[in-house]
Design goal:
Elements: H1 14-48, H2 54-85
């Protein structure tokens, strides 16, 4: 028998806790790539935007827009799933 203070029953059932943990991990992973795109593109625009042709700047702006749309989609799906679960 364990004498750990954490050995008591958690406030949430274990399967629900595991599901929430997986959801957070999945959403986090889904956000990493788009956030990295936003980070890199804004950095490049800040450093080189004044020397690039306008088409290159627009290309990076489109990458940012697509990444933000992807993150909005992931959040929308999570909120929709949460509403369905209630």
């Amino acid at each position: 028998m364990s004498t750990s203070p954490y050995s008591g029953q958690s406030p949430e059932p274990k399967p629900l806790y595991d599901l929430k943990a997986r959801l957070i991990q999945t959403v986090g992973n889904e956000f990493l790539a788009p956030l990295e795109i936003v980070h890199q593109s804004t950095y490049l625009l800040a450093c080189f935007g004044n020397t690039w042709e306008i088409t290159t700047c627009i290309q990076h702006l489109h990458r940012i827009q697509e990444a933000v749309e992807q993150m909005n989609s992931v959040l929308g799906k999570c909120l929709e799933a949460e509403r369905e679960g209630d």
